[in-house]
Amino acid sequence: GAGVSQSPSNKVTEKGKDVELRCDPISGHTALYWYRQSLGQGLEFLIYFQGNSAPDKSGLPSDRFSAERTGGSVSTLTIQRTQQEDSAVYLCASSDPQGPHTEAFFGQGTRLTVV
Amino acid sequence: AQSVTQLGSHVSVSEGALVLLRCNYSSSVPPYLFWYVQYPNQGLQLLLKYTSAATLVKGINGFEAEFKKSETSFHLTKPSAHMRDAAEYFCAVSPLQGAQKLVFGQGTRLTINP
Description:
The complex is a heterodimer. In chain A, 0% of the residues lie in helices and 45% in strands. Chain A is an all-beta fold. In chain A, strands 2, 4, 5, 8, 9 and 10 form a six-stranded mixed β-sheet that branches. In chain A, a hairpin with a 6-residue loop joins strand 4 and strand 5 (44-50). Chain A is globular, with a radius of gyration of 14 Å. Chain B is mainly β. Chain B has no helices and eleven strands. In chain B, the strands form two sheets. In chain B, strands 2, 4, 5, 9, 10 and 11 form a six-stranded mixed β-sheet that branches. A five-stranded antiparallel β-sheet of chain B has the order 1-3-8-7-6, with no helix packed on it. In chain B, strand 4 (31-38) and strand 5 (44-50) form a beta hairpin. Classes of the chains: A mainly beta, B mainly beta. At the A-B interface, strand 4, strand 5, strand 8 and strand 9 of A face strand 4, strand 5, strand 9 and strand 10 of B.
């Protein structure tokens, strides 16, 4: 596609439920990032995928968070047993580190509200 | 390993005044450097980037940044602020070589006073 697409754009869930957030990166981009942005806060790095390398999971806040990237393209971020502190905007970005446009292109984010 | 420090989480300037947002980086290898802007309720978009060509980089909306290796800085400036410049600004670094992740600063919220 023309840009990074995230779905859903908004998600309201009850505490304790599991949620899945989806990211479709720009075609051909080998790198994919997930970030979290809480209200009025900066970007919190969650996880980084690059090609076939093992993902950098160093930013995942707890074992309730996991992410996968299938076929080097679409990625899903899963949050199990959601808590109220998980409420935030989850941003996905992709880039082509070996190409001319090394910057990350961001999606519009998924706003998650845990009630 | 790379890191980025943005000095000042909030900056407030008057309309028409100079905008200066500070970014210092740490990198063991030559870096790529970026500034992103996030307008209210929107995603992040690239403002400008340094990729080892000219040290003075011009971006969109009249912004520019200068790479100073000796100071490990990449400060963002604009000569005359507009109300529409009110946004959150993020500085980021990644290695020049190799496919390694971007590292972002904590962001600076710019407020423009009429």
